[in-house]
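Sequence in, structure out. Go.
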Amino acid sequence: MWSPYLRKDINVLEKVQRRATKLVIGLKHVPYEERLKRIGLTTLEKRRVRGDLIETYKILTRIENVDSSKFFVLNHGSHNLRGHRFKLYKSRSRLNTRIFFYSQRVVEVWNSLLDNVVEAEMTNCLKIRLDKEWGI
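Output:
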């Protein structure tokens, strides 16, 4: 979920990427999604979400020297039997601006990941497993 202001910027950048992929020889009349596959790229939005997830992993596993409690609250509910041990609690937001913060927008995607992705031993393992799960 992105703010309406950021959405405009995303659309402009995505438009540039669409045009740039048409410049590759032999791909001018190929649909955009197919061009991305052939070149080995993903959409800007998917790359952004992937970057957010990688940063979340680094914060939660203390690879980054950042206090994770400043961003996230781990969901240690005893009634929650599904998912991985790094489930995050999503706090309620009174203001619309709050729902677009990094610490809020990443929670749902992070919680939906499989155990083996989130509990990777290293950052590169997480990246490989995430790409495999998403079919990239």
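Check: The chain has two domains: 1-41, 43-136. The longest helix spans residues 4-22.
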